[in-house]
Amino acid sequence: MQPTPTFVLVHGAFANSFSFAPLQAELGLLGHRSVAVDLPGHGFAATYHRAYQAPQDPAGLAAAPGSIRGVTLADNAEHLIGVLERAKQNGPVILVAHSRGGITATAAANARPDLVDRIVYVAAWAPVDLDVNDYYAEPEMASVDAASLGLALAGNPAELGLLRVNFRTADPTALAALKAAFLADGTDEEFLTFLNTFQPDENLDVGTSADRAQAQTWGSIPRTFVRLADDASMPPAMQDRLIREGDALTPGNPYDVRTLAGSHLKWLVDPAPAARALADLAAITEPTGADRVTAP
User: Fold this and answer.
1) What is the pLDDT of residue 292?
2) Exposed (0-12), middle (13-18) or buried (19+): which is 1, by Cβ within 10 Å?
3) Model pLDDT, residue 147
4) String of DSSP letters for the chain
5) Nearest residue to 120 via CA among 134, 109, 135
6) What CATH number does the domain located at 6-287 have?
7) Which end of the chain has fewer CB atoms within 10 angstroms, the N or the C?
8) CA–CA gap between residue 81 and residue 228 (Å, rounded)
9) What string of DSSP letters covers 12-24?
10) Dihedral angle computed from the Cα positions of residues 87, 23, 204 and 78, in that order, rounded to the nearest 10 degrees
11) Burial of 180 (0-12, 13-18, 19+ CB in 10 A)
12) Residues of the chain with pLDDT under 50
């Protein structure tokens, strides 16, 4: 009997493995094995200062050091590759990345395509033509109000060496902006619950042109893009552009494209449709990763 795939789940910015608990429950009930990754400086390795607790100390929060300072994309990719190596010992691996996690998944797939039998981007960054930060100046991101998302910013990223957001803010304007960006189709209770799973710090390194998708390695892996139709932080127009760029890079191996209704986080709050979609992908994934050439 052919072994069933292991889903390796990679979180986005400010998130962690906890974000995937409801999805993992649904996958488990469908008979699928999954592993949720905490990238370096995430999960129980994250920094939570007393200044972040109630009552908050805004000045202290803006100046306190964070353990994620200095963490690089290379560190994230190395950590993920270690997880993939262990998962691959049990059979095929389906690498699933959400949002900013796509940058790490792409870097790992560039380096070790032999460890991945399918890569799945869920409204995730899969940079091809531009570096990730440069996409934000493109027309497809024009509807994203970066200034409003900065209302909860704490401290100066250049001084802290990291990006810090006060997700425990009580500022109604900041909270409304965050909800509109991430979970406009959720209840206020769902939004605040998810917000409280976020950690305040994220690393700054999103890579360079060397970390974009590479045709010979990344491009050899069967891949799926799960579009989130109502996503405000990664608009469908940008998702579609990334799909087009990936297909142009490797026209012989285009994306398998699926679409789920909902916002950037709704698929994790209401995970049953996503779990069914991933289960469908498990059924068509062949264990071919070991035959691919590893990047020099």
Assistant:
1) 60
2) exposed
3) 79
4) -PPPPEEEEE--TT--GGGGHHHHHHHHHTT-EEEEE--TT-GGGS---GGGSSSP-HHHHHH---TTTT--HHHHHHHHHHHHHHHHTTS-EEEEEETTHHHHHHHHHHH-GGG-SEEEEES----SSS-HHHHTTSGGGTT--HHHHGGGB-S-HHHHTSEEB-TT---HHHHHHHHHHH-TTS-HHHHHHHHTTS-SEE------GGGS--TTTGGGS-EEEEEETT-SSS-HHHHHHHHHHHHHH-TTSPPEEEEE-S-TTHHHHS-HHHHHHHHHHHHH--S-GGGSPPP-
5) 109
6) 3.40.50.1820
7) N
8) 27
9) -TT--GGGGHHHH
10) 0
11) middle
12) none
Closest CA to 163 of 135, 128, 197, 198: 198
Rounded Cα distance, 176 and 192, in Å: 11
DSSP 79-138: HHHHHHHHHHTTS-EEEEEETTHHHHHHHHHHH-GGG-SEEEEES----SSS-HHHHTTS
Provide the token pair at 271. Answer: 């995970």
Pairing of strands 163-164, 201-202: antiparallel
CA gap 243, 241 in Å, rounded: 5
The torsion defined by the Cα of 227, 266, 141 and 205, in degrees rounded to 10, comes to -100
